[in-house]
Amino acid sequence: MGHIAIIGGTGLCDPTMLDHVTSGQMENYYGTIRYTRGTYKGKEIIFLARHGKYHSIPPHLINYRANILGLKKLGVTAILSTTAVGAINRDYKPDDFVLPDQFIDFTSHSRHGSFFDGGSNGVVHVDMTEPYCPSLRETVVQAAQELSYPLHASGTYVCTEGPRFETPAEIKMFDKLGGDIVGMTNVPEVCLAREAEMCYATISMVTNYAAGISPVPLTHAEVVEKMVQNSKRLRRLVMRAVDL
Ligand code: HPA
């Protein structure tokens, strides 16, 4: 798998699964990233908390380009991330793991979604036929099997701008378009990883039924609570995959 980084999402801000941890900071063209370097069974791993150590960076303000370029410059070749999502597809339910293989982008482009803005980097149109790395996804499937964790081995991730949750009308539309799960962070993270020619996959944890499917209004506290409840299983799955 090469040199691996874990990008921890909501509920996974702390790399408690790593040994010999040291904190690092690295500056690159797009900004500064703070990361942790540690080992797992002797293998060196870099950990980056997507929302910051104390969950202080909302999805629309994450410096995705600094994060991905920073990891690239640290020598990372493969990224396994975690994401909290709501379920649109009725076959998916809270506490389920999903391994997306496609995304639909509903971010509103206040986000910087490319390294290729013209200028010295040029104009590049990167292929997105398989946005998520098939070999890394296969590794996660194998890890889930070994741990006997049920996992949806594919799914379409709809990425919204946030930080607000969706309206029931939006969820109905995403459902008609073929979306299975909805979250706020996978775009442009996955796109930038592809542009940087890094293998990228995400393990999504369903924390709630999406708006309108759930009979009650959704809260961020509910999302965090579910992630915390499931964090042991999620960490175990991530680390099993990283170890394969
Ligand atoms: N919508 C968007 N992002 C999310 C959700 C949701 O329902 N649940 C967790 N992250």
UniProtKB/TrEMBL annotation:
Its EC number is 2.4.2.1. One of its GO terms (cellular component) is cytosol. Pathway: Purine metabolism; purine nucleoside salvage. The keyword Glycosyltransferase applies. GO terms for biological process: L-methionine salvage from methylthioadenosine; purine ribonucleoside salvage. Substrate binds at residues 184, 208-210. The keyword Glycosyltransferase applies. Keywords: Glycosyltransferase, Purine salvage, Transferase. It catalyses: a purine D-ribonucleoside + phosphate = a purine nucleobase + alpha-D-ribose 1-phosphate. InterPro entries: MTAP, Nucleoside_phosphorylase_d, Nucleoside_phosphorylase_sf. Residues 4-242 form the Nucleoside phosphorylase domain. The record marks 166, 220 as: Important for substrate specificity. Phosphate binds at residues 10, 50-51, 83-84, 185. GO terms for molecular function: S-methyl-5-thioadenosine phosphorylase activity. Purine nucleoside phosphorylase which is highly specific for 6-oxopurine nucleosides. Cleaves guanosine or inosine to respective bases and sugar-1-phosphate molecules. Involved in purine salvage. Although this enzyme belongs to the family of MTA phosphorylases based on sequence homology, it has been shown that conserved amino acid substitutions in the substrate binding pocket convert the substrate specificity of this enzyme from 6-aminopurines to 6-oxopurines. Belongs to the PNP/MTAP phosphorylase family. MTAP subfamily. Homohexamer. Dimer of a homotrimer. This is Probable 6-oxopurine nucleoside phosphorylase.
